[in-house]
Design a protein that fits this description.
The complex is a heterodimer of chains A (295) and B (197). By secondary structure, chain A is α/β, with parallel strands linked by helices. Chain A has 13 helices and nine strands. Chain A is 43% helix and 12% strand. In chain A, helix 6 links the parallel strand 6 and strand 7. In chain A, helix 2 packs parallel to helix 4 and helix 12 packs antiparallel against helix 13. Chain A is globular. With 197 residues, chain B is of the alpha/beta class. Chain B has one domain: Class I glutamine amidotransferase (GATase) domain (Rossmann fold). Chain B has five helices and twelve strands. In chain B, strand 1, helix 1 and strand 2 form a beta-alpha-beta unit. Chain B is globular and about 40 Å long. Classes of the chains: A alpha/beta (295), B alpha/beta (197).
Protein backbone atom coordinates (compact mmCIF):
# COMPACT_ATOMS: atom_id res chain seq x y z
CA UNK A 1 0.00 0.00 0.00
CA UNK A 2 2.23 2.75 -1.29
CA UNK A 3 1.31 6.32 -0.48
CA UNK A 4 2.50 9.19 -2.67
CA UNK A 5 2.25 12.69 -1.25
CA UNK A 6 2.80 15.96 -3.10
CA UNK A 7 1.93 14.68 -6.59
CA UNK A 8 0.51 17.19 -9.08
CA UNK A 9 -2.80 15.27 -8.84
CA UNK A 10 -2.90 15.65 -5.06
CA UNK A 11 -1.81 19.29 -5.24
CA UNK A 12 -4.34 20.30 -7.91
CA UNK A 13 -6.92 18.13 -6.14
CA UNK A 14 -7.29 20.59 -3.28
CA UNK A 15 -7.83 23.40 -5.79
CA UNK A 16 -10.64 21.30 -7.30
CA UNK A 17 -12.29 21.13 -3.86
CA UNK A 18 -12.16 24.92 -3.54
CA UNK A 19 -14.14 25.50 -6.74
CA UNK A 20 -17.30 27.54 -6.50
CA UNK A 21 -16.09 29.01 -3.21
CA UNK A 22 -14.58 32.13 -1.71
CA UNK A 23 -11.07 32.39 -0.28
CA UNK A 24 -10.80 35.31 2.12
CA UNK A 25 -7.76 37.38 3.18
CA UNK A 26 -7.36 37.52 6.96
CA UNK A 27 -4.70 39.09 9.17
CA UNK A 28 -5.52 37.32 12.44
CA UNK A 29 -7.41 34.40 13.99
CA UNK A 30 -10.44 36.52 14.84
CA UNK A 31 -10.94 37.46 11.18
CA UNK A 32 -10.32 33.84 10.17
CA UNK A 33 -13.17 32.73 12.42
CA UNK A 34 -15.51 35.35 10.92
CA UNK A 35 -14.54 34.14 7.44
CA UNK A 36 -15.13 30.47 8.29
CA UNK A 37 -18.48 31.25 9.92
CA UNK A 38 -19.54 33.15 6.80
CA UNK A 39 -18.80 30.10 4.63
CA UNK A 40 -15.30 30.77 3.26
CA UNK A 41 -13.75 27.63 1.72
CA UNK A 42 -10.31 28.77 2.83
CA UNK A 43 -8.55 31.70 4.45
CA UNK A 44 -5.41 33.44 3.23
CA UNK A 45 -3.10 34.64 6.00
CA UNK A 46 -1.14 37.81 5.38
CA UNK A 47 0.38 40.48 7.61
CA UNK A 48 -1.67 43.35 6.16
CA UNK A 49 -4.53 43.38 3.65
CA UNK A 50 -3.53 44.82 0.26
CA UNK A 51 -5.25 48.21 0.77
CA UNK A 52 -3.18 48.76 3.93
CA UNK A 53 0.02 47.67 2.19
CA UNK A 54 -0.81 50.23 -0.48
CA UNK A 55 -1.52 52.93 2.09
CA UNK A 56 1.29 52.31 4.58
CA UNK A 57 4.03 51.27 2.16
CA UNK A 58 7.20 49.60 3.43
CA UNK A 59 8.24 46.01 2.74
CA UNK A 60 5.35 43.54 2.88
CA UNK A 61 6.49 40.05 3.94
CA UNK A 62 5.11 36.64 4.82
CA UNK A 63 2.82 36.76 7.86
CA UNK A 64 4.39 35.92 11.22
CA UNK A 65 4.63 32.25 12.16
CA UNK A 66 2.72 32.92 15.39
CA UNK A 67 -0.20 34.49 13.52
CA UNK A 68 -0.37 31.70 10.95
CA UNK A 69 -0.22 29.03 13.64
CA UNK A 70 -2.99 30.71 15.59
CA UNK A 71 -5.16 30.86 12.46
CA UNK A 72 -4.48 27.17 11.75
CA UNK A 73 -5.53 26.29 15.29
CA UNK A 74 -8.69 28.39 15.04
CA UNK A 75 -10.31 27.18 11.81
CA UNK A 76 -10.86 23.73 10.27
CA UNK A 77 -10.89 24.95 6.65
CA UNK A 78 -7.65 24.99 4.63
CA UNK A 79 -5.24 27.81 5.49
CA UNK A 80 -3.25 29.52 2.75
CA UNK A 81 -0.46 32.03 3.24
CA UNK A 82 1.44 34.38 0.98
CA UNK A 83 5.15 34.43 0.24
CA UNK A 84 7.12 37.06 -1.65
CA UNK A 85 7.81 36.29 -5.32
CA UNK A 86 10.96 34.17 -5.48
CA UNK A 87 11.27 33.82 -1.69
CA UNK A 88 11.63 30.05 -1.48
CA UNK A 89 12.84 30.20 2.13
CA UNK A 90 9.55 31.77 3.23
CA UNK A 91 7.83 28.94 1.30
CA UNK A 92 9.97 26.31 3.07
CA UNK A 93 8.89 27.78 6.42
CA UNK A 94 5.21 27.69 5.42
CA UNK A 95 5.52 24.08 4.27
CA UNK A 96 7.19 23.06 7.52
CA UNK A 97 4.45 24.88 9.40
CA UNK A 98 1.83 22.79 7.57
CA UNK A 99 0.06 25.54 5.62
CA UNK A 100 -2.31 23.99 3.04
CA UNK A 101 -1.62 26.27 0.05
CA UNK A 102 1.07 28.86 -0.69
CA UNK A 103 0.35 32.01 -2.70
CA UNK A 104 3.49 33.33 -4.38
CA UNK A 105 2.05 36.80 -4.49
CA UNK A 106 2.71 40.13 -6.16
CA UNK A 107 0.87 41.73 -3.22
CA UNK A 108 4.00 41.26 -1.10
CA UNK A 109 7.26 42.99 -1.95
CA UNK A 110 9.15 40.77 -4.44
CA UNK A 111 12.28 39.06 -3.10
CA UNK A 112 13.65 38.17 -6.53
CA UNK A 113 13.24 40.31 -9.64
CA UNK A 114 14.24 37.55 -12.07
CA UNK A 115 13.03 34.22 -10.77
CA UNK A 116 9.90 32.76 -9.25
CA UNK A 117 9.98 29.83 -6.80
CA UNK A 118 10.53 26.30 -8.19
CA UNK A 119 7.18 25.03 -7.05
CA UNK A 120 7.83 21.40 -8.02
CA UNK A 121 10.29 21.29 -5.12
CA UNK A 122 7.39 21.48 -2.63
CA UNK A 123 4.73 19.02 -1.46
CA UNK A 124 2.45 21.91 -0.53
CA UNK A 125 0.69 23.29 -3.62
CA UNK A 126 1.12 26.84 -4.93
CA UNK A 127 -1.23 29.38 -6.45
CA UNK A 128 0.20 32.22 -8.56
CA UNK A 129 -1.23 35.34 -10.17
CA UNK A 130 -1.34 35.98 -13.92
CA UNK A 131 -2.44 38.77 -16.25
CA UNK A 132 -2.49 36.71 -19.43
CA UNK A 133 -2.14 33.16 -20.70
CA UNK A 134 1.62 33.29 -21.17
CA UNK A 135 2.16 34.31 -17.57
CA UNK A 136 -0.30 31.64 -16.35
CA UNK A 137 1.50 28.91 -18.30
CA UNK A 138 4.94 30.04 -17.11
CA UNK A 139 3.74 29.68 -13.51
CA UNK A 140 2.17 26.27 -14.24
CA UNK A 141 5.46 25.36 -15.96
CA UNK A 142 7.17 26.10 -12.63
CA UNK A 143 4.69 23.87 -10.81
CA UNK A 144 1.76 26.10 -9.79
CA UNK A 145 -1.42 24.06 -9.30
CA UNK A 146 -3.88 26.94 -9.31
CA UNK A 147 -3.88 30.21 -11.23
CA UNK A 148 -5.68 33.40 -10.22
CA UNK A 149 -5.98 36.69 -12.01
CA UNK A 150 -3.75 39.35 -10.48
CA UNK A 151 -6.29 42.12 -10.90
CA UNK A 152 -5.15 45.11 -8.89
CA UNK A 153 -5.09 44.08 -5.25
CA UNK A 154 -6.29 46.55 -2.64
CA UNK A 155 -7.94 48.80 -5.23
CA UNK A 156 -11.56 47.76 -4.67
CA UNK A 157 -11.77 48.17 -8.45
CA UNK A 158 -12.72 45.11 -10.49
CA UNK A 159 -11.55 46.48 -13.85
CA UNK A 160 -8.09 44.87 -13.80
CA UNK A 161 -9.37 41.43 -12.75
CA UNK A 162 -11.88 41.63 -15.60
CA UNK A 163 -9.13 42.58 -18.03
CA UNK A 164 -6.92 39.71 -16.87
CA UNK A 165 -9.68 37.08 -16.93
CA UNK A 166 -10.87 38.18 -20.36
CA UNK A 167 -7.31 38.16 -21.66
CA UNK A 168 -6.62 34.64 -20.38
CA UNK A 169 -9.93 33.32 -21.75
CA UNK A 170 -9.47 35.04 -25.14
CA UNK A 171 -5.88 33.79 -25.41
CA UNK A 172 -7.11 30.23 -24.73
CA UNK A 173 -9.91 30.48 -27.29
CA UNK A 174 -7.43 31.68 -29.89
CA UNK A 175 -5.15 28.70 -29.25
CA UNK A 176 -7.99 26.26 -29.93
CA UNK A 177 -8.35 27.68 -33.45
CA UNK A 178 -4.69 27.09 -34.38
CA UNK A 179 -3.33 24.21 -36.43
CA UNK A 180 -0.52 22.05 -35.03
CA UNK A 181 2.05 23.86 -37.21
CA UNK A 182 1.11 27.17 -35.57
CA UNK A 183 1.58 26.08 -31.95
CA UNK A 184 5.34 26.52 -31.69
CA UNK A 185 5.05 30.10 -32.93
CA UNK A 186 2.25 30.72 -30.44
CA UNK A 187 4.51 29.25 -27.80
CA UNK A 188 7.29 31.72 -28.71
CA UNK A 189 4.84 34.66 -28.70
CA UNK A 190 3.32 33.67 -25.35
CA UNK A 191 6.69 32.88 -23.80
CA UNK A 192 5.20 29.64 -22.51
CA UNK A 193 6.25 25.94 -22.51
CA UNK A 194 5.22 24.02 -25.63
CA UNK A 195 3.60 21.06 -23.85
CA UNK A 196 1.32 23.36 -21.86
CA UNK A 197 0.43 25.40 -24.96
CA UNK A 198 -0.55 22.16 -26.70
CA UNK A 199 -2.67 21.06 -23.73
CA UNK A 200 -4.58 24.36 -23.73
CA UNK A 201 -5.02 24.20 -27.52
CA UNK A 202 -6.60 20.74 -27.11
CA UNK A 203 -8.73 21.40 -24.02
CA UNK A 204 -9.57 25.11 -24.39
CA UNK A 205 -8.86 25.57 -20.70
CA UNK A 206 -5.98 25.66 -18.25
CA UNK A 207 -4.75 22.30 -16.94
CA UNK A 208 -5.27 23.64 -13.38
CA UNK A 209 -8.18 25.55 -11.81
CA UNK A 210 -8.49 29.21 -12.80
CA UNK A 211 -9.68 31.56 -10.05
CA UNK A 212 -10.28 35.33 -9.86
CA UNK A 213 -8.58 37.80 -7.51
CA UNK A 214 -7.69 41.46 -7.20
CA UNK A 215 -10.39 44.08 -6.67
CA UNK A 216 -13.47 42.02 -5.75
CA UNK A 217 -15.54 44.11 -3.30
CA UNK A 218 -19.23 43.24 -3.84
CA UNK A 219 -21.45 40.19 -4.48
CA UNK A 220 -21.93 41.56 -8.00
CA UNK A 221 -18.15 41.59 -8.54
CA UNK A 222 -18.00 37.90 -7.55
CA UNK A 223 -20.85 37.06 -9.92
CA UNK A 224 -19.19 39.00 -12.74
CA UNK A 225 -15.92 37.10 -12.38
CA UNK A 226 -17.69 33.72 -12.21
CA UNK A 227 -19.69 34.58 -15.34
CA UNK A 228 -16.46 35.52 -17.11
CA UNK A 229 -15.08 32.05 -16.43
CA UNK A 230 -13.53 32.11 -12.95
CA UNK A 231 -13.97 28.83 -11.05
CA UNK A 232 -13.79 30.48 -7.59
CA UNK A 233 -12.89 33.88 -6.14
CA UNK A 234 -10.40 35.39 -3.73
CA UNK A 235 -11.48 38.43 -1.75
CA UNK A 236 -8.74 40.50 -0.17
CA UNK A 237 -9.43 43.90 1.33
CA UNK A 238 -13.06 43.77 0.11
CA UNK A 239 -14.38 42.05 3.23
CA UNK A 240 -12.51 43.41 6.22
CA UNK A 241 -12.30 46.97 4.83
CA UNK A 242 -16.11 47.12 4.44
CA UNK A 243 -18.41 48.37 7.20
CA UNK A 244 -20.02 44.97 7.94
CA UNK A 245 -17.48 42.21 7.19
CA UNK A 246 -19.54 39.21 8.39
CA UNK A 247 -22.60 40.13 6.33
CA UNK A 248 -20.55 40.99 3.26
CA UNK A 249 -18.53 37.79 3.50
CA UNK A 250 -21.70 35.68 3.65
CA UNK A 251 -23.26 37.61 0.76
CA UNK A 252 -20.20 37.08 -1.44
CA UNK A 253 -20.23 33.34 -0.62
CA UNK A 254 -23.87 33.06 -1.74
CA UNK A 255 -23.26 35.22 -4.81
CA UNK A 256 -20.39 32.95 -5.88
CA UNK A 257 -22.63 29.86 -5.72
CA UNK A 258 -25.67 31.49 -7.32
CA UNK A 259 -23.77 33.76 -9.70
CA UNK A 260 -26.23 33.12 -12.52
CA UNK A 261 -29.33 33.94 -10.48
CA UNK A 262 -30.03 37.71 -10.40
CA UNK A 263 -32.95 37.32 -7.95
CA UNK A 264 -30.62 35.77 -5.39
CA UNK A 265 -28.02 38.45 -6.11
CA UNK A 266 -30.61 41.11 -5.30
CA UNK A 267 -31.47 39.44 -2.03
CA UNK A 268 -27.88 38.98 -0.86
CA UNK A 269 -26.90 42.51 -1.92
CA UNK A 270 -29.43 44.14 0.39
CA UNK A 271 -28.39 45.71 3.69
CA UNK A 272 -24.69 45.13 3.38
CA UNK A 273 -23.45 48.50 4.62
CA UNK A 274 -20.74 50.25 2.65
CA UNK A 275 -18.22 48.51 0.43
CA UNK A 276 -14.54 49.36 0.83
CA UNK A 277 -13.53 52.66 -0.77
CA UNK A 278 -12.22 52.10 -4.29
CA UNK A 279 -9.39 53.58 -6.31
CA UNK A 280 -9.73 54.79 -9.89
CA UNK A 281 -6.91 53.18 -11.91
CA UNK A 282 -6.01 56.46 -13.63
CA UNK A 283 -4.93 57.92 -10.28
CA UNK A 284 -2.33 55.18 -9.71
CA UNK A 285 1.15 55.74 -11.08
CA UNK A 286 3.04 52.86 -12.67
CA UNK A 287 5.19 52.42 -9.59
CA UNK A 288 2.07 51.93 -7.45
CA UNK A 289 0.75 48.99 -9.49
CA UNK A 290 1.10 45.60 -7.79
CA UNK A 291 0.17 43.59 -10.90
CA UNK A 292 3.41 44.42 -12.73
CA UNK A 293 5.46 42.57 -10.11
CA UNK A 294 6.61 39.19 -11.43
CA UNK A 295 6.61 38.41 -15.15
CA UNK B 1 -34.16 6.05 -20.72
CA UNK B 2 -30.85 7.08 -19.22
CA UNK B 3 -30.47 7.63 -15.49
CA UNK B 4 -30.89 11.24 -14.35
CA UNK B 5 -27.95 12.10 -12.11
CA UNK B 6 -27.58 15.43 -10.36
CA UNK B 7 -24.67 16.81 -8.39
CA UNK B 8 -25.17 19.18 -5.50
CA UNK B 9 -23.60 22.29 -7.05
CA UNK B 10 -23.37 24.64 -4.09
CA UNK B 11 -19.57 24.39 -3.87
CA UNK B 12 -16.86 21.85 -4.64
CA UNK B 13 -15.80 19.68 -7.57
CA UNK B 14 -19.32 18.83 -8.78
CA UNK B 15 -18.34 19.38 -12.42
CA UNK B 16 -15.75 16.57 -12.27
CA UNK B 17 -18.45 14.11 -11.09
CA UNK B 18 -20.92 15.25 -13.73
CA UNK B 19 -18.28 14.82 -16.44
CA UNK B 20 -17.71 11.17 -15.44
CA UNK B 21 -21.46 10.54 -15.18
CA UNK B 22 -22.07 12.05 -18.64
CA UNK B 23 -19.31 9.84 -20.08
CA UNK B 24 -21.12 6.84 -18.59
CA UNK B 25 -24.29 7.85 -20.42
CA UNK B 26 -26.22 9.49 -17.56
CA UNK B 27 -28.33 12.57 -18.08
CA UNK B 28 -26.66 15.12 -15.81
CA UNK B 29 -27.64 18.33 -14.05
CA UNK B 30 -26.19 20.72 -11.48
CA UNK B 31 -28.48 21.06 -8.45
CA UNK B 32 -28.48 24.52 -6.86
CA UNK B 33 -32.05 24.62 -5.51
CA UNK B 34 -34.05 22.00 -3.58
CA UNK B 35 -36.90 21.86 -6.12
CA UNK B 36 -34.43 20.57 -8.73
CA UNK B 37 -34.17 17.33 -6.71
CA UNK B 38 -37.54 16.33 -8.17
CA UNK B 39 -35.98 16.01 -11.61
CA UNK B 40 -33.33 13.42 -10.76
CA UNK B 41 -32.99 9.75 -9.75
CA UNK B 42 -29.60 9.93 -8.12
CA UNK B 43 -27.54 12.65 -6.45
CA UNK B 44 -23.80 13.09 -5.97
CA UNK B 45 -22.73 15.23 -3.02
CA UNK B 46 -19.18 16.15 -4.04
CA UNK B 47 -16.00 17.02 -2.26
CA UNK B 48 -15.62 20.62 -1.16
CA UNK B 49 -15.58 22.29 2.23
CA UNK B 50 -18.27 20.80 4.48
CA UNK B 51 -18.51 23.96 6.62
CA UNK B 52 -19.20 26.02 3.49
CA UNK B 53 -21.72 23.49 2.19
CA UNK B 54 -23.62 23.56 5.50
CA UNK B 55 -23.97 27.36 5.30
CA UNK B 56 -25.23 27.17 1.72
CA UNK B 57 -27.64 24.33 2.58
CA UNK B 58 -29.02 26.51 5.39
CA UNK B 59 -29.50 29.50 3.10
CA UNK B 60 -31.75 27.53 0.72
CA UNK B 61 -33.37 25.02 3.11
CA UNK B 62 -31.79 21.94 1.58
CA UNK B 63 -31.90 19.76 4.71
CA UNK B 64 -35.41 18.27 4.63
CA UNK B 65 -35.59 18.00 0.81
CA UNK B 66 -32.33 16.01 0.85
CA UNK B 67 -33.62 13.66 3.56
CA UNK B 68 -36.85 13.23 1.61
CA UNK B 69 -34.90 12.59 -1.61
CA UNK B 70 -33.01 9.72 0.02
CA UNK B 71 -36.27 7.81 0.59
CA UNK B 72 -36.79 7.52 -3.17
CA UNK B 73 -33.41 8.30 -4.80
CA UNK B 74 -29.79 7.21 -4.41
CA UNK B 75 -27.10 9.38 -2.90
CA UNK B 76 -23.32 9.20 -3.35
CA UNK B 77 -21.22 11.31 -0.99
CA UNK B 78 -17.47 11.71 -1.49
CA UNK B 79 -15.17 13.31 1.09
CA UNK B 80 -17.09 16.43 2.23
CA UNK B 81 -20.20 14.73 0.79
CA UNK B 82 -19.59 11.79 3.13
CA UNK B 83 -19.23 14.20 6.06
CA UNK B 84 -22.60 15.72 5.19
CA UNK B 85 -24.50 12.42 4.89
CA UNK B 86 -22.99 10.81 8.02
CA UNK B 87 -25.00 10.36 11.20
CA UNK B 88 -22.13 11.59 13.36
CA UNK B 89 -19.18 13.91 12.66
CA UNK B 90 -16.19 14.41 14.94
CA UNK B 91 -13.01 16.57 14.93
CA UNK B 92 -14.92 18.79 15.49
CA UNK B 93 -18.59 17.77 15.86
CA UNK B 94 -20.82 19.41 13.28
CA UNK B 95 -24.33 19.13 11.89
CA UNK B 96 -25.00 16.49 9.25
CA UNK B 97 -27.90 14.96 7.32
CA UNK B 98 -27.80 11.56 9.05
CA UNK B 99 -28.52 9.61 5.86
CA UNK B 100 -26.00 6.86 6.68
CA UNK B 101 -25.20 5.42 10.11
CA UNK B 102 -21.46 6.07 10.25
CA UNK B 103 -19.15 8.17 12.41
CA UNK B 104 -16.74 10.26 10.38
CA UNK B 105 -13.63 12.08 11.57
CA UNK B 106 -12.80 15.19 9.56
CA UNK B 107 -9.26 15.87 8.28
CA UNK B 108 -8.26 12.56 9.82
CA UNK B 109 -4.98 12.06 7.92
CA UNK B 110 -3.77 15.61 8.62
CA UNK B 111 -3.38 18.71 6.50
CA UNK B 112 -2.80 19.08 2.74
CA UNK B 113 0.87 18.14 3.18
CA UNK B 114 -0.37 14.68 4.23
CA UNK B 115 -2.82 14.32 1.29
CA UNK B 116 -1.85 11.39 -0.94
CA UNK B 117 -2.49 9.11 -3.89
CA UNK B 118 -2.61 5.38 -3.47
CA UNK B 119 -4.57 2.29 -4.44
CA UNK B 120 -7.03 0.28 -2.39
CA UNK B 121 -9.08 -2.89 -2.64
CA UNK B 122 -12.73 -3.08 -3.64
CA UNK B 123 -14.38 -6.20 -2.21
CA UNK B 124 -18.12 -6.73 -2.54
CA UNK B 125 -18.92 -9.71 -0.30
CA UNK B 126 -22.64 -9.36 -0.92
CA UNK B 127 -22.57 -9.74 -4.68
CA UNK B 128 -23.20 -13.13 -6.29
CA UNK B 129 -19.55 -13.79 -6.88
CA UNK B 130 -17.25 -12.06 -4.41
CA UNK B 131 -15.60 -9.39 -6.54
CA UNK B 132 -12.18 -8.01 -5.79
CA UNK B 133 -10.57 -5.19 -7.71
CA UNK B 134 -7.85 -2.62 -7.15
CA UNK B 135 -8.99 0.98 -7.47
CA UNK B 136 -6.89 4.16 -7.65
CA UNK B 137 -7.57 6.51 -4.75
CA UNK B 138 -6.81 10.20 -4.26
CA UNK B 139 -7.17 11.40 -0.66
CA UNK B 140 -7.36 15.19 -0.13
CA UNK B 141 -7.43 16.32 3.53
CA UNK B 142 -9.56 13.22 3.76
CA UNK B 143 -11.97 12.13 6.48
CA UNK B 144 -11.87 8.67 8.03
CA UNK B 145 -14.84 6.41 8.75
CA UNK B 146 -14.41 5.54 12.44
CA UNK B 147 -17.56 3.47 12.91
CA UNK B 148 -19.89 1.56 10.58
CA UNK B 149 -23.44 1.35 11.87
CA UNK B 150 -26.00 -1.38 11.36
CA UNK B 151 -27.06 -1.85 7.76
CA UNK B 152 -23.85 -0.28 6.48
CA UNK B 153 -21.34 -2.51 4.76
CA UNK B 154 -17.75 -1.86 3.78
CA UNK B 155 -17.01 -1.96 0.05
CA UNK B 156 -13.38 -0.92 -0.16
CA UNK B 157 -10.38 -0.71 2.09
CA UNK B 158 -7.07 1.12 2.16
CA UNK B 159 -4.81 -0.53 4.68
CA UNK B 160 -6.84 -0.83 7.88
CA UNK B 161 -9.37 1.79 6.86
CA UNK B 162 -12.78 1.33 5.30
CA UNK B 163 -12.75 3.96 2.56
CA UNK B 164 -15.97 3.11 0.74
CA UNK B 165 -19.25 1.86 2.20
CA UNK B 166 -22.95 1.67 1.48
CA UNK B 167 -26.44 1.12 2.78
CA UNK B 168 -29.43 0.34 0.53
CA UNK B 169 -29.68 3.93 -0.73
CA UNK B 170 -26.47 5.66 0.15
CA UNK B 171 -22.90 5.16 -1.12
CA UNK B 172 -19.92 6.96 0.40
CA UNK B 173 -16.19 7.24 -0.25
CA UNK B 174 -13.49 9.04 1.72
CA UNK B 175 -11.41 9.39 -1.47
CA UNK B 176 -12.08 11.12 -4.81
CA UNK B 177 -12.88 8.68 -7.62
CA UNK B 178 -13.74 11.68 -9.84
CA UNK B 179 -10.07 12.74 -9.82
CA UNK B 180 -8.77 9.36 -11.03
CA UNK B 181 -9.17 8.10 -14.57
CA UNK B 182 -11.15 5.05 -13.52
CA UNK B 183 -14.96 5.22 -13.76
CA UNK B 184 -15.47 2.05 -11.70
CA UNK B 185 -16.89 3.70 -8.56
CA UNK B 186 -19.27 5.88 -10.58
CA UNK B 187 -20.36 2.80 -12.54
CA UNK B 188 -21.02 1.04 -9.25
CA UNK B 189 -23.18 3.95 -8.08
CA UNK B 190 -25.17 3.91 -11.32
CA UNK B 191 -25.74 0.17 -10.84
CA UNK B 192 -27.28 0.96 -7.42
CA UNK B 193 -29.96 3.02 -9.17
CA UNK B 194 -31.12 -0.13 -10.98
CA UNK B 195 -31.48 -2.15 -7.76
CA UNK B 196 -35.08 -2.47 -6.55
CA UNK B 197 -35.78 -0.11 -3.62
Amino acid sequence: MEKETGTQQVKAGLAQMLKGGVIMDVVNAEQAKIAEDAGATSVMALERVPSDIRKDGGVARMSSVATIREIMETVTIPVMAKVRIGHFAEAQILQALGVDYIDESEVLTPADESFHVDKFAFDVPFVCGARNLGEALRRIGEGACMIRTKGEAGSGNIVEAVRHMRTVVDDMKRLTTLGPEQLMTACRDLGAPYELVRMVADAGKLPVPNFAAGGIATPADASLMMQLGAEAVFVGSGIFKSTDPAARAKAIVEATTHYMDPDILVRVSEQLGDAMPGIEMGTLEDGQLLQTRGW
Amino acid sequence: MSVRVGALALQGDFDAHLRVMAELGAQTSAIRKPEQLRQIDALVIPGGESTTLIKLMDAYDFWEPLREFTTRGRVFGTCAGLILVASEVINPAQRSLGLLDVTVERNSYGRQRESFESAGQFIDRNSDESKTREIPMVFIRAPRIQRLGEGVRALATHGEDTVMARSDHVLVATFHPELSHDPFVHQYFLSMVDEPL
